[in-house]
Amino acid sequence: MNDITQQLADTWSQWLGWELVAVTLALAYLVLAVRQNALCWYAGFLSTAIYTALYWNVSLLMESGLNVYYMAMAVYGWWQWRHGGRGDTELPVQTWRWRTHLLVIGGIVLVSLASGTWLTMFTQAAWPYLDSFTTWAAVVTTYMVARKVLENWLYWMVINSLQMIILWERSLYLTALLMALYLIISVFGWLSWIRDYRGQSNDRAEEAACA
After folding, report:
1. What is the pTM of this model?
2. Are 188 and 194 contacting, i.e. CB atoms less than 8 angstroms apart?
3. Quick one: CA dihedral 28, 14, 68, 75, positive or negative?
4. Which stretches of the chain are DSSP H helices?
5. Using one digit for the tens of pLDDT, what is the confidence trace for 176-189?
6. How far is residue 167 from each of residues 72, 119, 147, measured CA to CA in Å?
7. Gap between the Cα atoms of 88 and 128, Å rounded
8. Which helix (H) or strand (E) holds 38?
9. Which residues does residue 149 pair with via DSSP β-bridges, in sequence order?
10. Which candidate, 192, 190, 187, places its Cα nearest to that of 161?
């Protein structure tokens, strides 16, 4: 009995250590993203590699798969931020029309219902519908970050709030606290990017007036 208890304690300590590393890298990613620093994608890649294993270990299958996608998007995002603008220049902040947002949100809900139903029927996944919703929403929102779509911060505020509930229930306490920090930083990200977007708009207006 003592051997089993010690083994469980050793396993817990091992995963807690990796979770701490992943949390630190993930926090660095977000702070750098707020500053529109392309180094954020390096931190994001390493963090998500660790989280892929962590989420699988606690049976959050959709979240584990999501982090594989995050790793690929880290490469895509780095390229877009550095070369995605006109003439192979740095990508500027942009926005989507409200109709696009309605279509995107509707699509997320439908896909989440489908995958949540599948997970309920064929797996032992925890929180199948809520996990599906945060997963598919994060898929879209990560793409929005890679394309510097301003409204990504609003999406993250909703996603992070829901993920806090899931992660706390699955005993990933450090990551749940990270989501709380993400929620706060997302507000600053929104304010920072909207200032930059408005500055770009003013610059374009001045260029048009001088043309």
Report:
1. 0.81
2. no
3. positive
4. 2-34, 40-57, 61-83, 98-122, 128-146, 152-169, 173-210
5. 888 999 999 999 99
6. 23, 18, 28
7. 41
8. none
9. 94
10. 187
